[in-house]
Amino acid sequence: MEGAWYFYRYRRIIKWLGLYLALAGPGIIVMVADNDAGGITTYAATGAKFGFSLIWFVILLGPIAYIVQEMTVRLGAVTKRGHAEAIFDAFGPFWGWFSLIDLGIVNFLTLVTEFIGMTAALKIFGVPPVITVIGVSILMSAIVMQGRYWTWEKIVLLFCVFNLIYIPAALIIHPDVEAITRGLIPSFPTGLSNDIFFYLMANIGTTIAPWMIFFQQSSVVDKGMTEKDIAFGKLDTALGALFTILVAAFCIILTGTLLFKPGGANIESAAAAASAIMGSNPYVGSALAIGLFDAGLLGAICISLASSWAMGEVFGWAHSINNKPSDAPMFYVFYFLSLIGAGIIVLLPGAPLVLITLFVQVIAVTLLPAALVFLILLLNNEELMGKYKNTLIQNILGISIVLMIIILSSLYSLSVIFPEMFQ
Amino acid sequence: MTNCVDDTSEKERISHVARGWREKITEINRKYSKPRLKMTPLVRASLLALRLYLIMLVIILIYKFYTLVR
User: Fold this and answer.
1) Which of A61, A112, A407, B10 has a CA 20 to 30 Å removed from the CA of A372?
2) What secondary structure letter does DSSP report for A290?
3) Share of chain A above pLDDT 70, in %
């Protein structure tokens, strides 16, 4: 009798796991891609500058990212609309066009920064930037053009696994576990100085980007998730948030172990950190470079799709990865144009790449508050969301987080515009 | 002669495409002209705050641009 009960339980768990694996995807992908080239650079710089002492802060960012992204799962599953279309529908053409045009600009510039990260990462192995740009463009085109959302998603999930490379890389250098444990306790080693405040803002800035909101909602719609799949969507997002903080924490552990010195070391980028480590520990340096390339690739895949989905939703073009290029020509044309455009800019001799990287932070802050406020307002509309609208606790958490993100990302943007402000 | 015909047809093609885009944008504006969300005081206040925030950002960017050029 007991054996039958266990068998029944076992079958239920297997069935549930099978169902989860079928529905897993958007949450994990968006969260892992959140650790894009810019994100990895921020974590690497944080570790080199402050050692392990800010690990607690990046761990806190996991739940914050989850609370925001979970709302996009509900909104997408209930309305069956992407975020761009939802904004047009709910707030009219003014806010619709503002969001769409701003998203297009921010995403394009961010795509350029992903290419910068990828070319810098492979340059460490002697690969010329032109080969990287061509190779990545062909790879990204092949992934979307096969005409099945399911296949696309599973390939991208495979790239997400590569992002975990920082975990074994950090473990093989035998970091100081006691010091890491101390880093889990909230504290500011040098007090709340301007320097540390700048790094906190930079970490917040990489946690929630406008493209993430648009990407996950469109992805949920393209996958065909409905109200009954929301629970799995939430689990998927929570697992993604767990992966993203694991990667961030281990990246900090890695550079905190190898590059940190009393007083803090300043590094310009993750690629510079990888080059610096390469001399003393080639395996770990290579892992950091491979991880940076993978992070840039994941970011580029998600960002270019977020733009194409948004354009397709608003202009009424066929806009599903389930469509073949002949069935959704404009969707794919837009996808390829943004890829080729970003690739060309990176290859242009004398292109202001540093300026573009800084400019992204400034432009992103024009869209992020609007996207977040629209998200909260939409999630509170009973007519639209029915029983899936935000509860009081969700609103308290959501609104507090949105306000905090708006204030800190705006301050970060101001510090980019006026560098002397936080010195 | 052939070149002249080619130029004219090319111009016509471009103006046809531009007209198509313009019509599409007008159609989108018409489709979404009436916002679905009820404009409660809270929604109005949020949208006003957003507008003010964006205006402030634009002023800061213009000031930065002005100081850079000067």
Assistant:
1) A112
2) H
3) 98
* CA A140/CA A145 separation, integer angstroms: 9
What residue has token string 């920082």? A166
d(CA A144, CA A245): 28
Question: Tokens 């790449």, residue?
Answer: A353
CATH of A27-422, picked from 1.20.1740.10, 1.10.10.10, 2.40.290.10, 3.30.200.100, is 1.20.1740.10
As a whole number of angstroms, the distance between CA A270 and CA A258 comes to: 13
Burial (CB count <10 Å: 0-12, 13-18, 19+), residue A51: buried
A370 touches chain B (CB under 8 A): yes
* Chain B residues in contact with A93 (beta carbon < 8 A): 28-29, 32-33
Say whether B33 and A92 touch across the interface (CB within 8 A).
Answer: yes
Contact check, Cβ <8 Å, B37/A378: yes
Nearest to A81 by CA among A314, A383, A394: A314
The whole-angstrom separation of Cα A193 and Cα A277 is 28
| Side-chain-side CA neighbours of residue B48 (13 Å) | 7
CB of B59 within 8 Å of any CB in chain A?
A: no
Q: Are A230 and A74 in contact (CB under 8 A)?
A: yes
The residue ranges of every structural domain in chain A are 27-422
Query: What's the pLDDT tens digit per position in A208-247?
Result: 888 999 999 999 999 999 999 999 999 999 999 999 999 9
- The alpha carbon of residue B1 is apart from the nearest alpha carbon of chain A, in Å, by 34
Contacts of A413 in chain B (CB under 8 A): 57
Separation CA A223–CA A228 (nearest Å): 13
Contacting residues of A for B50, CB less than 8 Å apart = 369-370, 373
Could you give the CA distance from residue A10 to residue A8 in angstroms, rounded to a whole number?
A: 5
pLDDT, tens only, B22-44: 999 999 999 999 998 888 899 99
Distance CA A300, CA A281 (A): 29
pLDDT at residue B1 greater than cutoff 60: no
Span A167-178, pLDDT tens digits: 999 999 999 999
Could you tell me which of A84, A94, A97, B28 has the C-alpha nearest to residue B20? B28
Q: How far apart are CA B21 and CA A323, in angstroms?
A: 23
Tokens standing for A336?
């390829």
Pick the residue of B40, B42, B50, B58 with the most A CBs within 10 A to test the interface with A by mutation.
B50
